[in-house]
Amino acid sequence: MKRNQSGITLIGFIVVLGVVGVFVYMGMKLVPMYTEFYSVKRSLADLAKEPGAGRMDSAKARDLFFRRMEMSYVDSVKQGNFKIKRNERGLEITVEYEVRRQLIANLDVVGHFNAVQQLTTKEGD
Q1: What DSSP character marks residue 100?
Q2: Phi-psi sector, 42: left (phi>0), alpha (psi -120 to 50), beta
Q3: Pairing mode of beta strands 82-87, 90-104
Q4: Contact status, residue 58 vs residue 91, Cβ threshold 8 Å
């Protein structure tokens, strides 16, 4: 009587486990970069909801933004990455920065992030 076995061998299981491990490790390096970026976007959106945001002084907008960055534990955004431009609708804030994390040995992962938020002047403010 002949029996057919089905399933995965030990070597096959180790290979699958290794591939899954590499992807989990890469995820552990990439997820914090993106959570920081979403904190930046959320902080910009919250800043836009401030009363009188469009008429706010540039120094005050910068101060409020970086206070939010400290509360969110965002270390990648520096003062030089934060740009404010005044236009006819109010203020336009651009945060553009790059994050570099070591992946394996001399292999790095580089993330380039750009967030733009318009702080409008509302007539009712």
Answers
A1: E
A2: alpha
A3: antiparallel
A4: yes
pLDDT above 80 (res 5):
no
Other CB atoms closer than 10 Å to residue 99's CB: what's the count? 18
Torsion of CA 75, 31, 17, 19, to 10 degrees: -100
Tell me how far the alpha carbon of residue 66 is from its chain's centroid.
Answer: 15
* H-helix or E-strand spanning residue 25: helix 10-48
Q: Are 56 and 117 contacting, i.e. CB atoms less than 8 angstroms apart?
A: no
Tens digit of pLDDT for each residue in 65-106?
999 999 999 999 999 999 999 888 889 999 999 999 998 889
CB atoms within 10 A of CB 26: 13
Mean of pLDDT values over 21-49: 93
Give residue 56's identity as a one-letter amino acid code.
M
Find the largest Cα–Cα distance for the chain: 87
The mean predicted confidence, pLDDT, of the chain is: 90
